[in-house]
Prior knowledge:
Blueprint: H1 2-33, H2 38-59, H3 66-78, H4 80-93, H5 99-129, H6 139-168
Helix pairs in contact: 1-2, 1-3, 2-3, 2-4, 2-6, 3-6, 4-5, 4-6, 5-6
Amino acid sequence: GPERKEAAKSLIGLMFAGVAAVLLVYMLLAVQFEDLILPFIVILTVVAALTGVSLVLFLTATPWSIVSGMGGVLLAGLVVNNGIILIDHFEKHRKDGNLEEVLREGVALRLEPIMNTVATTILGLLPAALSIPGPSPQQAMAIAVIGGLVGATLLSILVIPNAYAWLRK
């Protein structure tokens, strides 16, 4: 019926917004890093975020919806921050010495601020994700954002330094 058509139209619009967000983030990163390849490493965090979203929605038996999809689009701008911070450090210090040392130092220096930021965001979303005080329409978005943040943070810490090392060797 008409509701199904409207939902399909909304889903297409949401997918378009997601692709546009990722392209915009890529272009901004290409300008910031003055490089066309480095932004792809950061964009990997968006892929990890969407994987985290899918996994947490599955584990919590929360269906994909327009609201959870909006959480996924929101993550496109949110999760790239950790990758930007790491790559910016790597770029500033890569000529200082051993690349492996620079990578290890960069992750060590940035780990606590990254974890604190993610933890405070997750704690802030927890009441909505748990539907405290009662069911809310934002629950699916909060669950999606939490799952995406966890997936993207793990990737940022584990994969970005290795991808950067591979690219720069």
